[in-house]
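Q: Got a minute? One more chain.
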Amino acid sequence: MKFRKSFLAALALLAIAAVCFRPGLETDAAAQTEMRSAASVVKPVAYVSLEPVPRGKEFQVAVVAEIAHGYHVNSHKPTDPYLIPTTLTPQLPTGFQLADTIYPPGKLEKFSFSPDKPLDVYSGNVTLVLRVTAQSDAPLGAATIPLTLRYQACSEAACLPPVKVPVTANLQIADANAKPHAVHPEIFSASAPRK
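A: Always. Here it is, folded:
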């Protein structure tokens, strides 16, 4: 009887150990670390073209994304449908309307994992631009526009999991009669759409 109780106690301890130290927990931790590193491959910063932005006026929001050396991300129009495109999605607050999202063309490059078919990618620095209108009812004063940059970063050796990275654009909304001035011309003149 005593042996049976000891045996059952040992089985119970083994069951607890199996739950606490199951491989899935290590995999979850590894996946979280991988996701964090995927999010750190691209450093995005948001800029606004006008200061302040008058009600009723169109302005631009640019996200300049610096892609780490040795990595690339798919362009907005990748060469294969199974590849994940880079996208920029705003969560516009009340009083703002999206007119257009402008993605730059990618560059065709060959990689060791796709030697026969070039891939359409972004590398180095890339600028994505939103055309937004501050409507007549946009709240006056400080405003923020939350943005989500989604991409999948790859090196010559492997692709990291796709990630969604939050970015925030900060701006000031003024009365319709306010006189705005252009800011960050080095970004917005270079990213102006070609007619």
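A: The chain is about 20% helix and 45% strand.
Q: Perfect, thanks.
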